């Protein structure tokens, strides 16, 4: 990878990077049930113990974190993406956890105290349903947040899920249903559009918003190219930069795929880890951060636009 700095290694399946004002980065460690601060000086320190499987993180205007608690998994070496000839063996979720947590949204105070915000959401028809496996989220300028629930597969059955909108008082409602394994999610710089990746289909949706949690219209923006073992891959975490470009953490090939606001494929930065789970960009747009989950690393790419050929 071009101009890459390894900020931390030895992380337990990192996800959900959040860049703080002091230059440090918070990441969730899904295989360890904790949130860790990767400090600008190159060392790590514990931030919060969530239990289970913390996934996506979002920072509220008051500095607290919202955490997608997916309930946890058992991790180990396993074939990816499927147990076919030509697959690769990586460190990944391989089964149900020994000590599961309730799937929920959690709040983490600035001192690291963890509380449960909600375990349920209100469907579009008005009933309440439990969260299945919350995946990722992003916070808007109103202090609310958009949440994806990735669902799960049990035997030969798949639980379908969708897009949710929540507020810090615990209200959580469904605004789009159904979606196929919704995962990464990010807002455009002006907050008028929401981008969402479906992992399995590699599709990136664009939702035009008319207000907080209000979808006016939708379209398929782009499809992430396949690659890696078995030429399959998938789309994971999503971010945008100050120019409105859409960056998608890419499973299979590894690294990040970059689209223009109009959905044109304009660049890519490869990584040697096929489980590139999430991406974010610094506030000034100059530095890109990637979580390389199966190898346990958080890396930064300086001058990433030049590295991507943009």
Automatic annotation (TrEMBL):
Q: Which domain of life is it from?
A: Bacteria
**Coiled-coil residues:** none
InterPro entries documented for this protein: 6-blade_b-propeller_TolB-like, SGL, SMP-30/CGR1_Lactonase
- What Gene3D superfamilies does the record point to? TolB, C-terminal domain
- Leader sequence range is none
Record-annotated SMP-30/Gluconolactonase/LRE-like region domain positions: 13-293
* PANTHER family on file: BLR2277 PROTEIN (PTHR47572:SF5), LIPOPROTEIN-RELATED (PTHR47572)
Which named protein is this? Gluconolaconase
Q: Which organism is it from?
A: Mycobacterium asiaticum
């Amino acid at each position: 990878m071009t101009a890459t700095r390894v900020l931390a290694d030895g992380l337990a399946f990192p996800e959900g990077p959040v860049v703080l004002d002091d230059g440090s980065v918070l990441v969730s460690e899904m295989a360890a049930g904790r949130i860790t601060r990767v400090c600008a000086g190159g060392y790590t320190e514990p931030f919060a113990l969530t239990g289970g499987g913390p996934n996506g993180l979002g920072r509220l205007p008051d500095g607290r974190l919202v955490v997608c608690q997916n309930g946890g998994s058992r991790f180990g070496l396993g074939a990816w993406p499927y147990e076919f000839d030509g697959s690769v063996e990586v460190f990944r979720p391989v089964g149900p956890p020994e000590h599961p947590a309730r799937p929920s949204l959690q709040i983490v105070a600035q001192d690291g105290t963890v509380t449960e915000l909600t375990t349920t959401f209100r469907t579009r028809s008005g009933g309440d349903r439990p969260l299945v496996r919350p995946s990722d989220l992003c916070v808007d300028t109103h202090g609310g947040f958009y949440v994806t629930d990735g669902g799960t597969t049990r035997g030969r059955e798949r639980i379908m899920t969708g897009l949710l909108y929540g507020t810090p008082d615990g209200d959580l409602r469904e605004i789009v249903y159904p979606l196929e394994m919704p995962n990464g999610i990010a807002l455009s710089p002006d907050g008028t559009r929401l981008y969402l990746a479906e992992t399995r289909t590699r599709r990136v949706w664009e939702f035009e918003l008319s207000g907080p949690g209000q979808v006016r219209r939708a379209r398929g923006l782009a499809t992430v190219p396949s690659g890696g073992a078995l030429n399959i891959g998938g789309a994971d975490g999503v971010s945008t930069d100050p120019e409105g470009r859409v960056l998608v953490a890419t499973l299979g090939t590894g690294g990040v795929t970059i689209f223009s606001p109009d959905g044109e494929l304009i660049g890519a930065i490869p990584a040697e880890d096929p489980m590139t789970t999430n991406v974010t960009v610094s506030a000034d747009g100059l530095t890109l951060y990637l979580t390389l989950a199966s190898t346990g690393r958080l890396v930064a790419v300086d001058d990433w636009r030049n590295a991507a050929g943009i």
